[in-house]
Specification:
three-stranded antiparallel sheet, 5 helices
Length: 219
C-alpha cells in the first residue's frame, strides 16, 4: 500500500440502531429510549451507538443495547442498512439496523448512559400516529414491521416471542399479531406440526380446558 493516501477521501461514520421487539398484552411492542442529548433531545429513538474503529458491527450492537438499556446476552440479526445522505444533522452517518425478538418475561431494561427513559411502545399505534421519532427511526421501524410480517410466513421467527415451553393458543396468537390477521386453528396446527413436540406439562388453575405445553424441535 505504499503511496496510498486515505486523506483524499471524505470521512463518514457508521452506527448501529437496534430494534428490540416483544409481545405484551397481545400487542407487538418495541423498546425505545428517550434521548438525553442533541440532536433530537427528548425525542423517542431506537437504542444505538457509533461503531468503534476496532469492533465489528455485531460487537457494536451488543455494546449499544447494554449501554442504553442495560440488556445483554440477546440475539440480534442484521436487518438492513440505511444511508440517506441527510438522515443525521450532525454529519454523514450510515446506520446498520439490527433486530431482536425477545419474550417479554426476559426483558429487564433500564435507562442507559445517554437516555432519559427506556420503555415499551405499541408498534401499530406508533406507526399510525403523527408522533415523530429521532432521525429516520420511524422509517426504520416501518421497514422492520413489514419485514416481520413477511418473515413469519417462511421462517420460525415467531418462536422467539415465546418461552422455551408454550401452548399452541399462545403461539398462534403471536403468529396472528405478526401477520395482522386471524388464522384457522386447524390450518395453523397442521403448518407448525413439523416444528414442535409435546412436553409432559399442561396448564392448570384456569377456567378453560387445560392446554398442553409444547417446545420447538431441535435441528
Amino acid at each position: 500500500m505504499k503511496g496510498y493516501d486515505s486523506s483524499i477521501y471524505e470521512k463518514m461514520s457508521v452506527a448501529v440502531d437496534l430494534l428490540v421487539f416483544t409481545v405484551e398484552d397481545d400487542r407487538l411492542k418495541i423498546l425505545l429510549i428517550e434521548r438525553s442529548e442533541d440532536p433530537f433531545k427528548n425525542a423517542l429513538a431506537l437504542p444505538g451507538v457509533f461503531v468503534g474503529v476496532n469492533e465489528t458491527l455485531d460487537e457494536a450492537a451488543q455494546r449499544g443495547i447494554k449501554e442504553e438499556t442495560g440488556l445483554k446476552d440477546i440475539y440480534f440479526e442484521q436487518l438492513y442498512t440505511f444511508g440517506e445522505v441527510k438522515r443525521d444533522p450532525r454529519m454523514r452517518i450510515i446506520s446498520v439496523a439490527y433486530m431482536a425478538l425477545v419474550p417479554v418475561e426476559k426483558l429487564d431494561y433500564i435507562a442507559g448512559e445517554r437516555t432519559v427513559n427506556a420503555g415499551l411502545f405499541d408498534v401499530e399505534e406508533l406507526l399510525a400516529s403523527k408522533k415523530k421519532m429521532a432521525f429516520d427511526h420511524k422509517d426504520i421501524l416501518k421497514y422492520a414491521r413489514w419485514r416481520l410480517a413477511n418473515k413469519v410466513e417462511y421462517t420460525d421467527i415467531a418462536f422467539h416471542f415465546v418461552g422455551e415451553e408454550f401452548t399452541l393458543p399462545a403461539l398462534q396468537k403471536v403468529y396472528e399479531i405478526l401477520l395482522g390477521k386471524s388464522l384457522y386453528k386447524a390450518n395453523f396446527r397442521k403448518k407448525i406440526a413439523p416444528m414442535i413436540e409435546e412436553t409432559e406439562f399442561v396448564t392448570s388453575g384456569d377456567k378453560h380446558r387445560p392446554s398442553r405445553f409444547y417446545r420447538r424441535k431441535e435441528g
